Amino acid sequence: VGDSTAAERALITSKNNRKVVDIRKLRARKERELTGLFLVEGIRLVGEAVQLGADVKAIVVAPELLDSPFGRGLVETAEERGVPRLDVSAGVFASLSLREGPQGLLAVVRQRWAELGSLPPPAEESVWVALDSVQDPGNLGSILRTCDAVGASGVILIGGATDPYDPTAVRASMGSVLAQSLVRADYDGFFNWASRGGWRVVGASGGAVTDYRQADFGKPLVVLMGGERQGLPEEVLQRCDATVRIPMTGRCDSLNLAVATGVLLYEVFRQRHPPGQEMRPGRGESDPARPL
Amino acid sequence: VGDSTAAERALITSKNNRKVVDIRKLRARKERELTGLFLVEGIRLVGEAVQLGADVKAIVVAPELLDSPFGRGLVETAEERGVPRLDVSAGVFASLSLREGPQGLLAVVRQRWAELGSLPPPAEESVWVALDSVQDPGNLGSILRTCDAVGASGVILIGGATDPYDPTAVRASMGSVLAQSLVRADYDGFFNWASRGGWRVVGASGGAVTDYRQADFGKPLVVLMGGERQGLPEEVLQRCDATVRIPMTGRCDSLNLAVATGVLLYEVFRQRHPPGQEMRPGRGESDPARPL
User: What ipTM does this complex have?
Assistant: First the structure.
C-alpha cells in the first residue's frame, strides 16, 4: 500500500463502490458503534489525527480537491505509516462529506474509549468533566474543546448520551475528541470510582446554595453537569461532595450547557492558576492570529 | 376574529393553503428579511412571546396536538388580544414545524431591530456584546441567552452575521431573542456611537497581552468578539479601549465562540457583583428544578 504510485492507484468514481458505501455508513451512530470507527474530515482535523498518533484505518483523498501542500504532505505521512489510501473523484468525495466546500481529505479513525477502572490515579491538578445525558453533539464537542483548553483529562458520559464521535461533535471539538479521554459509566460505577480514588465531585444545579465562585474546587476534581433537558436529579446531587450554582440576575434562568460548563471550568482554572501567576503556555499562546 | 368559536373556525388540512405556504416560507432568511417576521415554536417560547408583549401577528394551533392547558390558555390570551388564529391539522403543523415531537403551537412574530442612534444612553451597569461576523445561529442564540442571564442589554451585530431570527438561533436563545435588544452596525458607526456615549470597548483576541481576569471591565461596557472563523482584525483591535485574552494551558488553542463570550461575561459579572455580595435574584433563582 505504502509504495503504490499515483499511476497504480485506481480513482474510484462510483458512489456505490463497496468501500465508499462502508465509509458513508459511518455517518450513522449505529454503524460507528458496530465498527468502533468514525470519520474525521478536513485538512486541519486529519492533521490533528495524524499528529496525535490516532489509529487511522484509512485515508480518503479527492486529488481534484486537495490542493493544499500541507494536506498532501499529510497524505504522504499517513502512507509512510502504512495507512491504506483511497482515491476518489470529487463527486464521490462530496457524497461522503458533511462540509460545505469539502477540502478533499477524510480519515477513518478508530474510536478510543477508556474504562473507569483503568484510568490513571489522580494527579494533583487532575480535572474531569462528567455529563449526565448530554443530548446535543455540538455541546459535547464544545465541552471537549474547553476541557482541552484548560488542561482537563476528559469527559465521563453518564446515562443516555449523544455520541462524541458524531461528525457534529468531532467538528465542534476542533479535534479535541482525539486528545481527550472518553469514558462511559453509570452512576454507581462513577461514584464508586470517585470515592475509591479520592476525587472530589462537584455537581452543578440551579437550586444549589453555594455560588460557584465561593466553592472549593479542591484537587483532584470532577465537575458533574446535568443534561440540556433537565438538571441533575436530587438523589445524584446528594451523592456529590458539593453542589454549586451559577448566579443569574437577568430574565433568563439557565445557560446553554457548554457555556455553563465553560464558566465552571474557568473558575476551576482560576483557583489553580490565579491571574498574574506564571503558567506553562498552551500551544496557541504565542500565535496572535488565533481567534481567541 | 377574537370571538369566533371552535365550530366557526375552519380546520386547514392542506399544506398548500396560501397562509400555510406563507408561514412555511418564514423558515428562509430571505423571506424573514422581506417580511420582517419570524417563527416562534413551542409552548414555552410562544408563552415568552405573549408574556413579553411581543408583536404577535398570528398564532397557529394544531388542536389535535395541543393538549397542554397552559398552551390552550396562551391561545386564549392571544385571541383576547385580537391575534388572528389559524387552526391546522397535525399533518399541516408537521409541515411547518422544525421540532421533533411538535407541541401544536406556533406564533408568527414581528422582528424587533434597534438603531444605534436611538439606544438609551449608558446606565452605570450597562453591558452590550458586539459580534463580528458571527456565523453559527446556535452560537448567536446561546450568546443571547447568556446576555439575558447576566442582565446585559443586547447584541450588536457587525459585518455579515447569521440571522438572530433563524429558528435555530431562536431556539438556542430560549426566548432571549425576544427580550434582548438587537442592533446591526458597521465598524465606523459602532465606534462613533461608543465614543460619543462613553462606552468602553474591550475586544477579545488570542494575541492580546492582558489576561481577561486582570482587565478593567469598567462601566459602561461593550465586549467585542470576533467570529468563529477568524478573530478580530488588527485594525479593529487598535480601535478598542482594551484587548484581553483568555488563557489556555492545554493542547487546544481556542474556545467555542459562545463559551468564550460566556467566560468573559461572567468575569464582567464578577467585577460588578463580587461573590458573597447581595444582588437582585433573577426570575429562576428560587426554582430548584431548573437545570442550572
Answer: 0.91
